[in-house]
Amino acid sequence: MRRHGVQAFVTPSTDPHSGEYVPKHWESRAWVTGFTGSAGVAVVTMDKAALWTDSRYFIQAADQIRDTEFVLMKDKVEGTPTIEDWLATELSDGDCVGVDGLVNTVSAIEALRDSLLPYGITVEDVGDPYDEIWEERPQLPTSPVVIQGLEYSGESAASKLARIREKTGMDALLVSMLDEVCWTLNLRGDDIDYNPVFVSYLLITPDKAVLYVDRRKTDEVRSCYEGRDMLIADYLNDEGVEVKDYGSIFSDLKDIDTPVWAQKERTNYACYMLLKNPMARECPISAMKVMKNATEIAGYRKAMVKDGVAMVKWLKWLIPAVEAGGQTEMSLVRRLYELRKEQLLFMGDSFQNIMGYGSHGAIVHYEPNDTTDIPVRAEGLLLCDVGSQYRDGTTDMTRTIPLGPLTDEMRRDYTLVLRGWINLAKAHFPKGTYGSQLDVLARAAMWEYGINYLHGTGHGVGSYLNCHEGPHQFRMNYMPFPLCPSMTITDEPGIYIEGSHGVRHENTMLVVEDKDGVTFGPYYRFEPLTMCPVITWPVITEWLTSDEKTWLNQYQKQVFETLSPLLDNEHREWLREICKEI
Amino acid sequence: MRRHGVQAFVTPSTDPHSGEYVPKHWESRAWVTGFTGSAGVAVVTMDKAALWTDSRYFIQAADQIRDTEFVLMKDKVEGTPTIEDWLATELSDGDCVGVDGLVNTVSAIEALRDSLLPYGITVEDVGDPYDEIWEERPQLPTSPVVIQGLEYSGESAASKLARIREKTGMDALLVSMLDEVCWTLNLRGDDIDYNPVFVSYLLITPDKAVLYVDRRKTDEVRSCYEGRDMLIADYLNDEGVEVKDYGSIFSDLKDIDTPVWAQKERTNYACYMLLKNPMARECPISAMKVMKNATEIAGYRKAMVKDGVAMVKWLKWLIPAVEAGGQTEMSLVRRLYELRKEQLLFMGDSFQNIMGYGSHGAIVHYEPNDTTDIPVRAEGLLLCDVGSQYRDGTTDMTRTIPLGPLTDEMRRDYTLVLRGWINLAKAHFPKGTYGSQLDVLARAAMWEYGINYLHGTGHGVGSYLNCHEGPHQFRMNYMPFPLCPSMTITDEPGIYIEGSHGVRHENTMLVVEDKDGVTFGPYYRFEPLTMCPVITWPVITEWLTSDEKTWLNQYQKQVFETLSPLLDNEHREWLREICKEI
Known about the structure:
The structure is a homodimer.
Chain A: E1 8-11, H1 28-33, E2 41-45, E3 49-53, H2 58-64, E4 71-74, H3 83-90, E5 96-99, H4 106-116, E6 122-125, H5 130-133, E7 146-147, H6 150-153, H7 157-168, E8 172-175, H8 178-185, E9 187-188, E10 200-204, E11 209-213, H9 216-219, E12 222-225, E13 228-231, H10 232-238, E14 241-245, H11 249-255, E15 260-261, H12 269-274, E16 278-279, H13 285-289, H14 294-324, H15 329-341, E17 346-349, E18 354-357, E19 381-386, E20 388-390, E21 393-394, E22 397-402, H16 408-425, E23 428-430, H17 435-438, H18 444-447, E24 458-460, E25 469-474, E26 488-491, E27 494-497, E28 501-504, E29 507-516, E30 522-528, H19 546-563, H20 569-578
Parallel strand pairs in A: 1-5, 3-4, 5-6, 8-15, 11-14, 15-16
Antiparallel strand pairs in A: 1-2, 2-3, 7-9, 8-10, 10-11, 12-13, 17-20, 18-19, 19-22, 20-21, 23-30, 24-25, 26-29, 27-28, 29-30
Helix pairs in contact in A: 14-15
């Protein structure tokens, strides 16, 4: 810090590609603080060190930083200063805060700069200090890349590039979100947990497209495309894409005269500052990617059926196994993983799967590990939020499973969440409706009882890509992106009673055409993609309206009809019983 | 135009005080075009003239401008240029558009200026040309002013001024919205149809408050306050308010050195440009005014009961009267007006009341007049949207009344609107919820049938003030203003089938505390203020959930219990029958 003339340094959890998960190489914040949670920012001055994180991680963070100089700052808790306020207090007029422009978005640095400006404190990009001080820093990942063939993607990379160029016209586009690179080029990687992407940039100009990547991934790796086994580099060449070294993006960005579209919220500051003609325009790929084509939709259906079969096998096994004793959250996770792994084209989890028993179910992002694992007994509720990556599709579902006797409160919450889940799932809505307008449908039933949840109600799901995909979503906050046919979106209300239990029901759904409206144009509705039964015995059926019962019975019937041909007799009869009408 | 060096002149429908209704003096657009509708903009160039208006007025406007040079421009219809586009086409680089800065807000002029800038066209405030060319222009209104005593307002003007100064601190505040002047000073006027306000400005500085008004209204008019009969000017003096001539605002604004808060969306350009230190801050009165105090709430309840009694008398009379023949929309309006006029403290309509029979019910802002009036027969639906001004409160309600045999479609729409109306009315919601989040509750039932309405679902209602009061509302558009206990808001979904019928059900409601939530703080709910029965025989009862039926039965019971002590035997028994459980 002294050498760079800065009096503080800020280390966020992010990497150059603004993704939800980051490769180990960029886990500098975890390395410097010892805190391994996914969200947190470390700030170091010449004599102090502090770590900001949110309520999910208060306990874990306190524990992991106990023997360090870091002080825990509880985000959004009254009395906790913001990073900016803290810096304003700790530093003096004329001081400078150092950041690594590569792992911060343009927006993040602009916001920090704006809020420190009144205090006479400046912000400077001093590059990555960890290369020097972090011994044994993990290398950039080198996992191989595969082609996501037309049988899964439904559209060639060349065609996608042409469609993107229709939007960018005579300008260039810098793509730094890894799932957008992957979607555009029909490639997938394995550099990051849960997200089948690889570290790279893509620069699309009116007359060429260049992929910046570790060239071993393209020049030494073969994959199959349209029946031919070929080098990734040759495949890309055929699609009109040149390959260059990952690091050469910097000099290329400096040289480009064309205006370059680079969205400030998702482009790193270091790249953006190199551009002669940056244009802070929204990246068009995001809105293109969420409109799934027929091949992708068929793939989702296959993936959901596979997950459904695995879930039925697991659910049928579950109760006797728990009653027999000896099961823990971790053992249940392993069993479910094994059953999904038996399914064709299974590639792994699509996020850190959640298996929360009892009071662990009330911790929204609980992930069982060897330290937190607890025995699971034949009573209460088990919250299981599970998602898979299959080559043909990504899945995300939650079932809350009654393992034995429940309290009245548990049955109340099970029923209220179910009502919200059904009411959103069965909505019809006119063209132009935003997810944020529909969100209340999932909450109204529990609001009657003074209960709410503070997370969003739903997000898009990628096609063998990231499980969380925007920009459309269901949430209380305003998000003006209309829902359109062929988008995927989850429906996942929940109730979390601290120290007692959690309930969440979640399906992934597809937006489809409904009928033409009597008034004002086309209407849309949702079709469930997830095919997994709901256990209905805890439901307080008198609380359900007849429309809600009808929807649930129809869904259970569809689950039975879809999955039963793929099950043996014993599982089929079990499923028939579970899916019987209420 | 030549004398002022402008090549076009724009005449909007607005006045210097940005209200919904304007005094005749400022109805320049109506005078110049002949078109008398409430919304429209006239634009005149050296050789052309055009009038923009919205779909409500296409027929009326076409009719009224038939023999003029004005061409009708149908707002928001495909192919219709915007005013800006049209001006850009008609004028040339270097040309100038004239406006009267007094009847345009700062925002309106800034927007016009910004959109014409790329064409090299400027915008200039050339003052009011109509004084010169409009012979027999109506004078500014001179109706007397009355004091809205503490028995109605519940808080003195001096106290309100003190609370406003807590927010504006060492700055000054220019109040130009007439209802905000009236609320602050506990005065009411009669200068404008439906809104009991008077033409004025109020300037509040840290050490004084000045009302700019036609001084005859204050110096020659007496009113009663706290048992004393006094001159308005003396009352104001006691509350710490000085009175000056309406026209002297301009020189005073020029002289003030203090920073002056003046919201750009509601302050006229002429005033704003005079300020040395304008601050484009939101006027704090708007948010204070919507929080009704206990006295005001008690007043609403009294007003709603009076309207309810009048409605019961009218409804009981209605069917036999219609069956007997000879009734028209206008005769029904007159009858209802007479019945409301019998009520204590009735001051008039709170908006242009709507009485739309048959296909007229499908015209959202239909107002019957001698030209449009039609006979009302004993069949189909009558849409009656009625609101009153009482000294103790403003009302707004809609009932759709079955006059005889209905089609299946009418019963469907009657039921779907009722379901939406009930679902919004019975909502519970956490602190911080916006009306725009709840809006879908009123629409979800009809969306199932592909039916929607394009107006908002609800608005605030003033306390013997404007019937439409912001900023909170229910609508599809985002409006981030949380609903808080002691706000009033209407609940008025509708279905309009062109050429056939219209259905709307509307109550005015009060936001009240619910219980403390199980999770995350206080919850709120709505309490109906409107006390008027719903005629239930057209309802397809199988479509209602049991919760919806329960709410409706409870409401009808409350209406009966509230109104029956005020009715004679015959009306009481009629009401008992109407309010019986479904």
